[in-house]
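Dock pyridoxal-5'-phosphate; give full complex structure.
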Amino acid sequence: MNSAQQTQRPTSAELDAADPLAGQREAFYSPAEGQLTAYLDGNSLGRPLKATSAKLASFVEDAWGSRLIRGWDEQWMDEPTTVGDRIGAVTLGAAAGQVTVGDSTSVMLYKLIRAAVDAQPGRDEIVVDRDNFPTDRFIIEGIAAEKGATIKWVASNPASGVRTTDLEGLLSERTAVVVLSHVAYRSGFLADAAAITARVKESGALMLWDVCHSVGSVPLELDAWGVDLAVGCTYKYLNGGPGSPAFAYVNASQQDRLQQPIWGWMGADNPFGMTESYTPATGIRSFITGTPPVLAMQPLKDMVELIASVGMDAVREKSIKLTDYAAALAEDMLVPLGAEIVSPRNTAERGSHITVDHPLFGDVTRTLWDRGIIPDFRPPHGLRIGLSPLSTSYAEVELGVTAIRDALAELL
Ligand SMILES: *Cc1c(COP(=O)(O)O)cnc(C)c1O
């Protein structure tokens, strides 16, 4: 970018002043003055809402402390699906009765992928990309070993992600399920979920989207896209807190056809019947296994309502502006020092983070964390700048990228 263009670009102060969502930042807890200067890792762990402390205290005192065991009958038994329906309506484009909250993302992936393979005898291949998040690949390796299934690896460009054409030659009458990330954890590539889902379903296989990096930052239309299965986590852009539970989406058309493999009493049709053997519940409840993590589900509820009040389209619009701004700053300040932007330039193909590579970024990240500037690092060389649309300001992005440049320059 030449200096004429630089002077045309609005300053971070101007961008913040013109940002219709700027006021939403007030809803988030931030540490005392001077402790933290730029948080660029909300894609790994969202900040808490200010409301969360009071929410948890009141849950302890009013719900748990006062209602005690009665709470299960009064409310908690239904929380996995009532909270699931709300996540579905606000962020997933999912009609009620198709989302349940519980377990970890890894366990939910296991349950749904195993169910997809079990339901289709004769289809013994699982398609997944080599750059997918480790847990997705590991879970599939385990299922392949357990079931004698074959993994068909998609080779895609690591600086972008999986496109429909990358699947050609891999889909056949032997494909059971295709597992892809909607937004790639490393590059931030946003896949064309509608087109890929249509292509996969044409082959007769089931489509499972991992939406960990898109839920709460990119609008989803799981019902309209004809998606069969999806799994996501709630501690990233849904700000549920460390270890908050995952959610699973099972399209209504697949719920009777699929049986998940971890049979527990809470997914049985009569949990308190203490029956001799397992009969699954009907509908989405059959995807539950054990006692739901009710306590850990409380904080995310407020975030889902905050997103509902703003709307996913407005969230996406700010996300695009933040990533554009971060990419422009990286172009100006980091590329001249030998760094490379390894995220898509086209905003239509980008989620809510960008990744910049440099061989020294491991050391740079350690230095920055000590200085209160928090991006994250993904080996071998990737520094990720995550932009949470409702809690990140343009000033924070500028401060962060400037600090990355200074720390890198010190090491060169
Ligand atoms: C964060 C993330 C996970 C996390 O899995 P857990 O079981 O919650 O640890 C899985 N897949 C993707 C794509 C992720 O980004």
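Observed: Residues 104-106, 133, 135-136, 181, 185, 210, 212-213, 233, 246 surround pyridoxal-5'-phosphate (CB under 6 Å).
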